[in-house]
Amino acid sequence: MSRSLKVAISGGGIGGLTAALAMLQRGMDVAVFEQAQELKEIGAGVQLGPNGVRVLQALGLSEQLAKWGVESTSKEVRIWSTGKTIPLLNLGAESVARYGAPYYMMHRADLHQMLVDAVRALKPDALHVNAQGVGFREIGDEVELQLNDGRTHRADVLVGADGLHSRVRRQLVGEHKPKFTGGMAWRGLIPMERLPEHLRRPVGTNWIGPHGHTITYPVRGGKLLNFVGHVERDDWQVESWTEAGTLEECKADYIGWHPDVQLMVENIEHHFKWALFLHPTMQQWSYGRVTLMGDACHSTLPYLAQGANMAIEDGMVLARALEAGAAYPVAALQRYDKARVERTTRIVDQSSANLQRFHNAQLADPVQADNYTSVEWDPARIRERYEWLFTYDAVNVPI
Question: What are 29-41's pLDDT values in tens digits?
Answer without folding.
Answer: 999 999 998 887 7
